Amino acid sequence: MSALVLDGLTKRYGSFVAVHGASLRIPHGQFVCLLGPSGCGKTTLLRMIAGLEDPSGGRLIIDDRDITDAPAHTREFGMVFQSLALFPHLTAGENIAYPLRIRGAPRAEQKRRAEELLELVRLPGAADRPVSKLSGGQRQRVAIARALALSPKLFLLDEPLSALDAKLREAMQIELKQLQQRLGITTIVVTHDQREAMTMADLVVVMSQGRIHQAAPPMEVYRQPADAFVADFIGMTNLLDGEIAGPGTVAVPGGTLALPGLPPSGRVLLSVRPEEVLVHPAGQEGPNRLSGTLAFMRDLGASVEFRIDVAGREIVALSRPQDRPPVQPGGRLTVEFPRESCIVLPPAPPVEHA
Ligand code: ATP
User: Fold this and answer.
1) Which stretches make up the ABC transporter domain (predicted)?
2) Helices 136-147 and 107-120, interaxial angle, to 10°?
3) Who lines ligand 1 at CB under 6 A?
4) Which residue has a Cα nearest atom 10 of ligand 1?
5) What stretch(es) of the chain map to CATH 3.40.50.300?
6) Which residues contact 135 (CB under 8 A, 6 or more apart)?
7) d(Cα 120, Cα 137) in Å, to the nearest integer?
8) CATH top-level class of 3-232
9) Looking at residue 349, what is its pLDDT?
10) Ligand 1 atom with the shortest distance to the CA of 14
C-alpha cells in the first residue's frame, strides 16, 4: 500500500531550527493531525510536505517516489489555508472550478464537477452564490471543495476550523472526518486543539519545539503518552516525581506507591489523570493512598473538582458528585492513586520541573 514517508525532514531559519529531523510513515488513507502549541513547527512541517517550503535536510517520499525537490504544483496535493484564500468576487461554483479552469477543462466539466463537490460538502444549490454572501462555515466548505477539485493524492489543511465559533467548529470536525472517510484520501491537518485532534485523527503527531514527541492513535497518546510533555499537553494531568524505593515501589512526595511497570532503580515521573484519582475521607488508609489537605473545590455539574495539597504538591482530582467526601477546604482527606491509573514516564529534564 502506498504511503507518505517523512525521513528526517528539517527546516532551519539561520541558526534557528524550526523542525528537527521529523520522521514519520503515514499509511494510505490515514487522517493525521499535527498537534502542538503555537510555534512548535506544525505549519512549517505541513508547508514542507506541500512543497511551499524547501527542507534544509531530509527527504519526502510518496508511493516510493522521492519528491523532496518536486515543485508544489507538480505534487497534486490539495491545500486549505487558515485564511481560506477564496476569490471574494467569484461565486462558490467559480471558486471550486478555478483549478479546473486553470487546467483548461471545458466549461461543462467545470460546472458538473463544482456541483458534484458542492453536493459532497453539503452545499447543494450554492453554485451561483457569491462567496462574499456566504457564512463562515459555508466558506469553509467551499475552500474544502476547491482543494478537492483535482482529486488530490494528499489533502493538507492548516488550522482550517480555527475561525469558526465553538459549536460550528465541532460540527465541522465531524463533517470533515466523515468526508475524509468517504473519500479515503490521506489527510494531514494542523491544529493546536487537543480535542479537535482526538476527534478527527487516526494518527496524532504531537510536536513541541520542532520535534515530534509521539505519533500514535488518539487513545494510545492519551493512555500511553511518550513523555511528560505529551501527557500534559493531551489532557490536564498530575505529574509526580518519584524515586524507586524497592522492587515495584516508588517514593513520591507524601508516601510510597506500589506500581507495575517500574524500572529497577532511578527516578521516574508518574502521570495520573484527574478523573482517575480517587478521593476518600481522612483516615481511610490503604495501598497507594496518601493524605492531603483540600485546598479548593468546585462543582462542575457532572463532576466535582478537588485541588488537594499532598506534601506540598497540588493534586487535581475529578470525582462524581455522589462520591464526594464530606470535607470543606482546609480539611484533611485521603487521595488514592490506583495501580492501573499511574503511567510511568521517563524522569522529566530538571529544567522543566525546577
Ligand atoms: P502556530 O500554531 O502559531 O501557527 P506553528 O506550530 O505552526 O505555530 P510554525 O509556524 O511552523 O509554528 O513556526 C515554527 C517556528 O519557526 C516559530 O518559532 C516561527 O517563529 C519560526 N518561523 C516560521 N517561519 C519562519 C521564517 N520564515 N523565518 C524565520 N522563522 C520562522
Assistant:
1) 4-234
2) 130
3) 13, 16, 18, 36, 38-44, 192
4) 43
5) 3-232
6) none
7) 14
8) alpha beta
9) 63
10) 29
